[in-house]
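Deliverable D5.2: sample structural annotation.
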Amino acid sequence: MQVSDKLMLLRSRMDAAGVDACIIPSGDPHLSEYPADHWKVREWLSEFTGSAGTLVVTREEAALWTDSRYYLQAEEQLDELTIQLFRDGQPGTPDYASWLCEVLMPGDKVAVNGANLSITQLRTLTRQLRTGQIQIDSVSSVAEDIWASRPTIPEDTIFMHDDDWAGKTRAEKLLEIREIMKKEGATHYITAALDEVAWTLNLRGTDVLYNPVFHAYLIIEHDQAKLFVNPHKLTAQIAQKLAIDDVKVYLYDDFYKHIKDQSTDAVYFIDADKINSAIFAALSPKSEKREGLSIINRLKACKNAIELNHLKETLINDGVAMVQFLYWLEENVVSCKVSELSAAKKLKSFRAGQQGFMGESFGAISAYGPHGAIVHYNANAQTDAVLKPEGIYLIDSGGQYLGGTTDITRTIALGTPSQQAKEDFTLVLKGHIALANAIFPAGSRGVHLDILARKALWEKGLNYGHGTGHGIGYFLNVHEGPQNIRPQDNGIELKPGMVSSNEPGLYRQGEYGIRIENLILCKEKYETEFGKFLEFETLTLCPIDKTLIEKSLMTSEEIAWLNQYHQRVFDVLKAHLTEAQAEWLKNKTSALE
């Protein structure tokens, strides 16, 4: 079915329901960044496959909003005659609520499935539409209803993530959560975030591509926990272990009915950014609700000592796979038989040979030449470019291991780079090093440090549109909160134990993309009479392409950092490589004089 036909069908349903516009966000009732196919309604309707985007359909118009990571992808995938593209973050671009207030009339009705919007998002949307005297129907499912061939919710079996990997038992985690609940004065704590459920119960699944999670809801009370999941997903052994820890299992589909029937004496702790608005609507209005930052997210973000030890071992394995890949790439690119897709497949095979590998943490961004300027480029059979011994290649990839999740980007010169490319790469590298070397007072937030990664670029009138760093899960989602490093302030302090990415970049449309990404650990540095100070430890081990460096732009301190980093990469990885690979790595990590 063509996009135009789908929109025509949707508009017919809207007419029947008395709806003048329909908002179709990304995500699912668990507010997942990467939902299962069952919930990819916006993707099905628009054929835009980016992970972030909101489609809005009126009786006469359709428009899609997405951020800078997906501008070029959206341009390629959207039919501009059918769906208008709005570039979020660009000067003069209205948000979709403001646009609706312009194109609709007072008294018109907008439909949105509240199960796919957080409490905060629905509150904000309602307030914005009220300025145009526009009504909102947040229980509508008109968009979902027209998808006749909609995939079913995955039914994959859940498996245990052993305590030896997790560092804490399920009982210990539940105890920590309950202690914070008591401080918050709450009797019930609801989480619908799939990674939070998985982390709390030391369980994992395969319901969502790349994310080792499963579809479930969890309610934690002081004397028990209630897991809402399809029971056949649980093995008998897991069910027994859950019972020992007073975790009772209920049907996934009974969750909303259950919370509607709860006692009005319950005091709920909820994160308005992590719980969908349909859950909030189902709770008795007489029950007290206390809102705050997700308790589980707070705990999960700060990795324990066992998790960090395993993650460091995992990053050695991942570094070996990356070196094996880069060595292979250099050996084979001259034959011109390597393409974006075959390169990504080869890298996955090297990772698969490492201990504890469970799959990729996201679809590799294997981007040659101009494709590198598409920040979240996704190679396919139609776009698959052949790599040649010239130009620039960007590979952003990661693995899921029992001992952690990895995410790394390297930009490689496949031939002699232009002076512009070398200068661009070096400015990005300077920002990467500045953030890696940061020493900052406890209480600092990501917004305070973001400028370090951009300063060298800004001084040349350059910039990049994405964030500099995101939190990363532990054998969980590759993008994890609550911390981030970006120009927008989310109010979250960086704390010891948090693992984030360090990934400044630069993108020249039609030419190339540059990004350098390592994982960094926040840790204590020292304490003075002025307070406690923190620093980052770079965890990723993989050479940075020296042929792309314009040395004249670097300070002696920056060169020293790079040389020390490269020496550590060689010292740690050499024993895990063949003699030829080790010799190659020795050359790639030799000192920049």
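Annotation notes: The radius of gyration is 25 Å. The mean pLDDT is 95.
The annotation will be released with the project's public dataset once the embargo ends.
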